UniProtKB/TrEMBL annotation:
Belongs to the purine/pyrimidine phosphoribosyltransferase family. It comes from Cicer arietinum. Residues 19-170 form the Phosphoribosyltransferase domain. One of its GO terms (molecular function) is nucleotide binding. The keyword Magnesium applies. It is an enzyme of class 2 (transferase). It is found in: Cytoplasm. One of its GO terms (cellular component) is cytosol. The keyword Transferase applies. Keywords: Cytoplasm, Glycosyltransferase, Magnesium, Metal-binding, Nucleotide-binding, Purine salvage, Transferase. Its cofactor is Mg(2+). One of its GO terms (biological process) is hypoxanthine metabolic process. This is Hypoxanthine phosphoribosyltransferase.
Amino acid sequence: MAKAIHPHLDRILWNEDQISLRVSQIAAQILHDFPAPSPPPVFIGVATGAFLFLADLVRKIDLPITVDLVRAESYGSGTVSNGDPIISSHLKVDVNGSHVILVEDIVDTGHTLSKLIAHLKLKGASSVSVCTLLDKTVRRKVDIQLVGEGKFYQGFECPDYFVVGYGMDFAELYRNLPYIGVLKPEHYS
Ligand code: 5GP
Ligand code: MG
Ligand code: MG
């Protein structure tokens, strides 16, 4: 029997099977782009939203990779980015001279990624790729400038709704839903 959808959601956009399949496809693409024995990339997840995507993705990458997290905050508890995210938790892994893959839950205006990419460039990464599960391209405000031979991996094009689940929150809730869906407006206003 199908599991009931969370009552605060209008509908599901991507279910567990669809997410899992897409994560496998992205992992295969990354393995193809970073073939052994070239130095394996450093995976840097953007906390907290990317934690499930990062966990599922790296388990499909059979290379001696390193994994770290950064934290960027721009939202508080609203649904609209304030345009000037701050990096509030820094890296432990030294990325100098490494190929970095930044793992994001969703790219919206692009401000968060731009700030993080600039930060990694400053830290000496020889390339910065972006791997985002969702991409809300219609809301982009700044172009994403990759570094070096960096690549852009995208799971799904996301329609212009506020979505939650599979790591993504509203006011820190709903991150544990195994699927991604549209939050009913009455639950964020
Ligand atoms: P940006 O800086 O690109 O505008 O926003 C990036 C961050 O805002 C994402 O990493 C994510 O944490 C958050 N965000 C953007 N759109 C959504 C959305 O539809 N749902 C949720 N839960 N977070 C979002
Ligand atoms: Mg994020
Ligand atoms: Mg959030």
